[in-house]
Amino acid sequence: LQDERTFKAQLVGADPDSVLAVLGIKSEKDLPAIEMGRSDDLMIGETVIAIGNPFGFSHTVTTGVISALNRSIRSNDTIYHDFIQTAASINPGNSGGPLLNINGDLIGINTAIYAKAQGIGFAIPINKARRIITDLIQYGEVVLSWTGLLLQNMDPDLAHYLKIPGEKGLLVKAVEPASPATRAGIKKEDILQAIEKRPVGSISSFNQAMKDFPVDSTVHFTLLRRGKKLTIALKTQAYPEERALDLAHNLFGIRVEALSSKNRRAFRINSPTGVMVSEVMPQAYLAKIGVEPGDVIRQMDDFTIESLSDFKKAMIRCRQKKTVVLLIQRGEQGYYISVKL
Fold first, then answer.
1. Which tens digit of pLDDT belongs to each residue from 296-310?
2. Residue 9 belongs to what H/E stretch?
3. For 6-39, what is each residue's pLDDT tens digit?
4. Distance between CA atoms of residues 223 and 159, nearest Å
5. C-alpha dihedral over 196, 123, 203, 216, to 10 degrees?
6. Distances from the Cα of 285 to the Cα of 7, 77, 177, 253, angstroms
7. CA geometry: angle at 249 spanning 331 and 205, to 5°?
């Protein structure tokens, strides 16, 4: 700490998608805590203060203004959304430091810099960070809310056919049975136009908007049904773990089983951990590249698969991604395979 006290920290939870983690430390004395503000009322041009340790210079303070809101930035193959863009100087070593308003309230967490330009930095809005932190403390990971909606982006031909002005909205192409959307009364061929009055024009914007709402929260959807506008309240829930294996069948075209002594003998499996592929649909991409029954899935993206329970949790976490990397083991050899969902 600033007074040079040191503590051993315990990792409470981490979220690779937002590059945020929660650490827990034990202290005999109460520790000072910053006052959390709001990030939903920020204005472009508003004065902000960034604090951090740029290049090892401890507790450096810089000032600037908010230069843009709701920015998306690309890092390698990943796009990060909803950043605060600031002109306050942020350099290597500022990451994780606070972004404050003129009252000293925490409005963001400094995260990234734009290497090709000076004076452009990015911070995670505190409203988004607070939601992530709450999940990390409660569950150890971020739990994505489930609606049960299967959506399709609007294109000019579809908008013309459905008589949707300006191609605005998303087509509800299906509603999963016994889902929050079913209970809320949302129907196939409804047009979703806004979430809590926030317009949604693409599936990615829908997914980003839903990340702001934790499990068991009530969300108001603005819909167009046969030309009439209506608002429906939907209560989100966590994706049911018992549906995860069907999800793998729908997205990957495979069935999996827990490793047992019986299937280890039958397929001569040496791997001590993972899940075994028991069935591959002939038309699936994995079948076309040679995955077959008896292969073992050891990893899904950054998630190590040691058991069937691990596979279910990873499947639920990855269900909204466009691409997932699998580590498949056959005999003594492991193969990394990129699969588009």
1. 999 999 889 999 999
2. none
3. 999 999 999 877 889 999 999 888 888 898 999 9
4. 15
5. -50
6. 49, 21, 26, 8
7. 115
CA distance 70 to 148: 26
Amino acid making up residue 14: A
Answer yes or no: are the C-beta atoms of 104 and 111 closer than 8 Å: no
* Torsion of the alpha carbons at 271, 275, 279 and 280, rounded to the nearest 10: -90
Report the predicted TM-score, pTM, of the whole model to 2 decimal places: 0.74
Tokens of 37: 């503000």
**What is the separation of C-alpha 39 from the centre of its chain, rounded to a whole number of angstroms?**
19
End-to-end Cα separation, the chain, in angstroms: 44
- CB-facing half-sphere around the CA of 68: CA atoms within 13 A: 12
- H helix intervals, 94-243: 126-139, 156-162, 180-184, 203-210
The answer to whether the beta carbons of residues 253 and 284 sit under 8 Å apart is yes
| 124-150 CB burial, b ≥16 within 10 A, e <16 | bbbbbbbbbbebbeeeebbbbbbbbbe
d(CA 295, CA 289): 13
What gap in Å lies between CA 339 and CA 216, rounded to an integer? Answer: 31
